[in-house]
Amino acid sequence: MSLTLIKVCCISSIDEVRLAVKYGTDALGFVSAMPSGVGIIEESLIQELASAVPTGVDSFLLTSLVDADEIIPQIIRCRTNTVQLVDSVETKVYERIRAELPNIKIVQVIHVTGENSVREAEFVSSYVDAILLDSGNPNLQIKELGGTGRTHDWSISKLICSTVNKPVFLAGGLNPENIEEAIMAVHPYGVDICTGLRTNGHLDEIKLRSFVNKVRNC
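-> structure tokens emitted (218 positions)
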């Protein structure tokens, strides 16, 4: 049986929380305001849904904010146990979160755009609890910070996994059809999925069951 952790992102209702938990997922992601992408919900709903996540399942707040003076109050409002920073931040932001919210886990997203992403991951690894590799493009005029449904160069992701000394989640274009190949290619600590499990915008139980079964049996 695989030890690969499963994070289901873009959770948007109590029913989706219950469905993801039913199939044994390890973490749930809640998307706050973003410049683009899918799964965005109001902070009041994130707070409600995070409170429904059972003990033993991590709750991730996805934030595009980059200023600690804004991020820290947002974490407090939303009441998740993990913050996922989808844009790059200054190192002082990690330090402020650690100092003021010592029980909150910090996950930094690295958008894999080339070999420079390896250096970026190495640099931030000493400041965070985990890294999540995604397929956005923060250099666009309207930033893409997740939920693109695109894969990226998994050879770079594999190099990051073997280089950094922190857990690494693989995201970006994953689905029940390619997840076995992705795990065999990258050997990540965990996998993260949003659009690949949705039908007409809703979490699809058939896709979810298939995805979980394939991950657990890799």
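The first helix runs from residue 14 to 22.
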